[in-house]
Amino acid sequence: MARKKIGKQTIEFIDPPSIISTTSIVGPKEGQGPLSQYFDIILEDDLYGEDSWEKAESKMVKEAVKLAAMQGRLHLEDIDYLFAGDLLNQLMSSSFAARDLGMPYFGLFGACSTMAESLSLAAIMIEGGFADYVVATTSSHFSSAERQFRFPLELGNQRPLTSQWTVTGAGAAILAPMRNKGPYITHVTTGKVIDYGITDPNNMGAAMAPAAVDTIKAYFEDTGRSPDEFDLIITGDLGKIGNEIAIDLLKQGGLPINKTLRDCGVEIFDHVRQDTHAGGSGCGCSAVVFCGYLYKLLKENIFRKVLLVSTGALLSPTSIQQGESIPSIAHAVAIEGKLKD
Amino acid sequence: MARKKIGKQTIEFIDPPSIISTTSIVGPKEGQGPLSQYFDIILEDDLYGEDSWEKAESKMVKEAVKLAAMQGRLHLEDIDYLFAGDLLNQLMSSSFAARDLGMPYFGLFGACSTMAESLSLAAIMIEGGFADYVVATTSSHFSSAERQFRFPLELGNQRPLTSQWTVTGAGAAILAPMRNKGPYITHVTTGKVIDYGITDPNNMGAAMAPAAVDTIKAYFEDTGRSPDEFDLIITGDLGKIGNEIAIDLLKQGGLPINKTLRDCGVEIFDHVRQDTHAGGSGCGCSAVVFCGYLYKLLKENIFRKVLLVSTGALLSPTSIQQGESIPSIAHAVAIEGKLKD
């Protein structure tokens, strides 16, 4: 058996990588939500001075990485690898940001699970001794996602109540070896693709909930830990409906964790006041909630242990047209503010 | 500095991971090309018994992984991680294959550079001690790529002579620790995004050539090795025109390696007889040429050292419509048939 893998899906780090800095950039709507105070930059205009939403999204990624480097007192040249992904076809936002950043680049796609995917691989690079500094980043943009996946905004289509609102935002986190200060990544649990046969692309919370549950169960089975040890187990973007389904499925599966199970998509918007229906979604959702809110509270030791479980619906417009159901995935990253001596 | 990283972009493995088995599956046209004898499965019909090209492509991935596991005398459950990616939006072919394979899954996107990207990350997982068996796989399909990126085939558009022909095929390679037999991955060099301002999506060889050259130069600078040590330096899918540009650029850059610099896209088709213009392309191109042809000749010690440099054009239809040039990337993987005692 491998040195550091425990159980079937989990890696336990012997020298947990440190997250030395993070940056979160969000759009105007996210800046009016309940987590407003935690974000580093709130855009006044979601075009961010660019002439398209896609370019604005790419600029958010680039600026988030630059600011995270600055906050970590690093030059861009100090960063060994960039792990990045987004929702746009061919990762337009990540690829163009990578062009301008000039770092060795691994492009990732895990739909809205990409933040945990990038954090997982970045942590593996660090703990394996392959790099001194790695940046993990993801983004999404409401308008670029609507244009690509749904209808022209100008049509004014009515959104069903199960639908979610793609977060405009980018988060970037810089990882380094354990000798640096915390928070630290102690474990990563890599998800399998789970598909319960949901076919409604306007109800992705329901499609993704079983994947989140599968990965959460794998994490606790593999580590032998108890959910009670965690201040927070937070899924990526199940939204309100997906969150309720996940709580039910966990209870049925003998792992009742309704108290501490929250969701980035639920936290980021005030659903009634902001009319976002089931909640936020998009790669940027768990990215900015982690890089903004969670990281800061971990750093201040208000949260001691957090399990971030970013969730992704791996459908494509083509797969839906061909009658396929929605395969989903969730990756988990366990983070602790301080390590025991 | 990190333990195993040398130079700016290269990791030198202390215990080079072994590639214990590979499988290549190709379409009928590839099966009529010059490398025909090296492929494990040649499809008679590129629908592969499915009702869409996308599903056929996904089936190729699934079957390639299954067969590679069988050839490695492994059950699918023995494989710790699946690294996969393809050209389709939202990685339809990889994601649906991952659903059926049931392994912890990292989705990757590096356009046609994805085979080297997946081999790189798989090798890092193995050498870092995080896994016993990892599978790296990528695919492409002529018809699914044409449908997504270009025109309906039924239109019969005329193809310019600079255009390339997307390979129908999937390759899968299973990696394990060095205690197993070779071939071995000795180094990985991770590419940066390079963009020389080419804007013609029908001339991707020209767009990608500078990225290939940048990564090849980085490999030799980082390792201090000489191109003469290699039997073959083989790019992913520059095609004939891109290959000539790469040879010129290398010569200008003081690294003349015209004799050993070949290209998977040039090798896979007989361009005159098969009317494929500048050559093959697609994630599947370097995947099947590596998993079929190169792996077998490395195993038989006919090739002793090969540098595989998969190349990707990171454009999207949206980025082209928005007037952007074509950012490109190349990742290199150095493979040796036997290690010195």
TrEMBL record, chains A, B:
Record Pfam families = SpoVAD (PF07451)
Q: Name one GO molecular function term.
A: acyltransferase activity
InterPro entries reported for this sequence: SpoVAD, SpoVAD_sf, Thiolase-like
What is the designated name of this protein? Stage V sporulation protein AD
The gene name on file is: spoVAD_2
